[in-house]
Amino acid sequence: MQTPSEKVARSISIALWLITFVAVSGILVANGLARSVTPIYHAAVEHWLAGQPLYYGPKEFNYLPSFVQFFRPFQALPKPVGDILWRLLAFAGLFIGLRNFVALLAKERPERDFLLVTLLALPMCVSALRNGQSSAQLAACLVLAAWYLYRGQWTPASFWICLSLVCKPLGLPGLGLALMMFPHLWWRLGLGLALVLGLPYGFASFDYVSQMYADFAANIAACQVPTTGRTFADLNGVLRLFGMELSGRPLLLSQVIAGGILAMLAFFIGQRGNSLEGALAWLGLTGSYIMLFTPMNEGNSYVMLAPALGLWALWALRQGHLRWAAAVIGISAAMNLLPEFVSLSSGANVAGLFVQFWYPLMTLFFLAILIHWILQDVLARRHG
Length: 384
Known about the structure:
Blueprint: H1 4-31, H2 38-49, H3 65-76, H4 81-105, H5 110-131, H6 135-151, H7 154-167, H8 172-181, H9 186-198, H10 206-223, H11 235-239, H12 248-270, H13 276-293, H14 306-318, H15 322-346, H16 348-383
Helix pairs in contact: 1-4, 1-5, 2-3, 3-4, 4-5, 4-6, 4-14, 5-14, 5-15, 6-7, 6-13, 7-9, 8-12, 8-13, 12-13, 13-14, 13-16, 14-15, 15-16
């Protein structure tokens, strides 16, 4: 039976999720698709149905052709119903995934712990949920995939990992790290990837789909080149503080080296089998790599890291690692609160520039904590 404090915590956390969803839906009803990215998705479906090109440069549609089929049911519904349901998909996935993990981590006070995770994770998700950015759906896929990885249910885990790739090509690092960490996934992810790539051929001519894949490859390559006048919230956001910026081959080299290091760490932690810590490590490493080393990340992209921050804070707290818990809670709080303070004191434009170095800087701190724990775990098991 729940204690009064547990009932209060449950009411507050559910209210926060419901109020956020109602507010986002209200904005859509009142303002239509203003300040939303979903018009790009609607246009892509229309172009596909008309047999027209999907790709018009890095500022437009940057997704696999299979994304068009994923979004088609939402595009077919009246506005704003389809757009509200699109956002509900992300809300539901994030809520269910986080709640599943909290129920596992929290033995004595699950509702208070879920409130803590909500306070740490939800604020960083709001912007992506509001503007319909598919980063929120990708984040939901990652959390649900991590849950099934922990449970050793390889087929549903593979489904969510492959669906994350449909949501955004940025899901690719998660797929690679999962292969290194969980060898049972190899044939399942191979089959899932083949289905993701082959699906569009069932909805248009072979020549048209093949051309779209060629255009997609060229478009993704263009995304790697910094857009004139635009800067992003990735590793370069930190480097710009020191008058440096990676591009071209140095950027590619940094991506390959970082990917190789994280892949080795994933392999070592994978020796645990399908453990809770292994699943959370995959979630944290994936989110950190995407934020720091993939192109064109903005402040709202950090919805893909927010669940890992909340869950790792709770894990450290429940394992008695109070200094680690305090550090991760501090990182999450700093990411949630400081940009708001800067916005109130100096305006939204300054806050946007602040986020471009502050978010990746905090991500580097979180990644350092995560790597430290993995190395400690590996050494402890070798000497055990």
